[in-house]
Amino acid sequence: xxxxxxxxxxxxxxxxxxxxxxxxxxxxxxxxxxxxxxxxxxxxxxxxxxxxxxxxxxxxxxxxxxxxxxxxxxxxxxxxxxxxxxxxxxxxxxxxxxxxxxxxxxxxxxxxxxxxxxxxxxxxxxxxxxxxxxxxxxxxxxxxxxxxxxxxxxxxxxxxxxxxxxxxxxxxxxxxxxxxxxxxxxxxxxxxxxxxxxxxxxxxxxxxxxxxxxxxxxxxxxxxxxxxxxxxxxxxxxxxxxxxxxxxxxxxxxxxxxxxxxxxxxxxxxxxxxxxxxxxxxxxxxxxxxxxxxxxxxxxxxxxxxxxxxxxxxxxxxxxxxxxxxxxxxxxxxxxxxxxxxxxxxxxxxxxxxxxxxxxxxxxxxxxxxxxxxxxxxxxxxxxxxxxxxxxxxxxxxxxxxxxxxxxxxxxxxxxxxxxxxxxxxxxxxxxxxxxxxxxxxxxxxxxxxxxxxxxxxxxxxxxxxxxxxxx
Length: 472
Prior knowledge:
Elements: H1 8-16, E1 17-21, E2 26-30, E3 33-36, H2 42-51, E4 61-64, H3 84-100, E5 103-105, H4 115-121, E6 130-133, E7 147-150, H5 153-162, E8 164-168, E9 171-178, H6 187-198, E10 206-211, H7 213-216, H8 220-228, E11 237-239, H9 244-250, H10 259-269, E12 282-287, E13 294-296, E14 304-306, H11 320-333, E15 348-351, H12 359-369, E16 379-382, H13 387-395, H14 398-405, E17 408-409, E18 430-433, E19 448-451, H15 454-463
Parallel strand pairs: 3-4, 3-6, 4-5, 6-7, 9-10, 9-12, 10-11, 15-16, 15-18, 16-17, 18-19
Antiparallel strand pairs: 1-2, 2-8, 13-14
Helix pairs in contact: 2-5, 6-8, 12-14, 12-15
């Protein structure tokens, strides 16, 4: 009997269904990897404690400290955390993982860092896995051909207790990208370009699989950036079928299969792809050559334009809801309708976050600022995604290049991505940021965020305004 054609998402889903209820359409999915951090776990562990339960599979759980961690003085450990609430969350995580025998990479451990950098780096994120975390940007791990998405605190407790998750099957959406990018354009530009095109609800109820020659040519770092932003386009998750690039990146990682187990895993991983005639509920086609350097102007990732374009005029927006959103965004961001986005003065630059804090991102930034200086009046910082990324950057001399240019060289953590630690914007400050969200107050109350690639952020630091390397 011929098997019904399936997508990669279908394959992973089918392989992990423990039980399905046809009446409700809900299924129980087995989870291969549960990533946890200090912010979304205290109530989950408290719930386990109250019910007298243990963590079902500590060996399939990995804990890091990232959201609340300061990006300076980490050698002091918890004593270096000045905010009482942040310190309490970090202390609580430390106690909980010790009690349940969960592997934990604490602040100061050279392997610690942002959860979505550390999981892949340690080889814990593997093709065909189901991966969850109490964090929206878990979609990052889809770059490895894993079904990965964020979950809520009650679901964190459920996974800790049972190693399963209650879930509903999503629709299949394909984003096919063909051809080569223009000079200076990459995964961050593609992601923002796509979100601007489909909207923040464009992928709602779907899992996006990225495919095409452009995706195949991407490095793993670029693929992680692209999948990371899937959630900002409304999708449940983003997926890229594993290939030789994936396998080469994983080989030799601490938790990757070894020896004969590697060969067995490789044979399985090579089967993880969508069938030629699989059904897609929606297909988006993009010509890579048409993707420009892209930057956000508003307070939603969909409010993005080409660097060469002008800020939209609300009167030109047909949709009433989007028009009202544009009016509010322009007021918050302090921008005029029709003004050029390039040349907009900035106060801060942040290069980091789970979107763009890997070694390739730091290399791209260093290449732009080498031999140049950060503009007077601009405060710029680089926050590596993990201690290992930081060490590699220092071995390559990237830190010295960035410091010589006037950047602050920080220790790993989520940092200014979300304003949950000392790295925040002051009201009215405008920031060129490589992070993933530009919501009102996201990087600090009253802060104004423009999302862009590391190369654009680095160029903006030197220019003192939103700019590209070509402008320098």
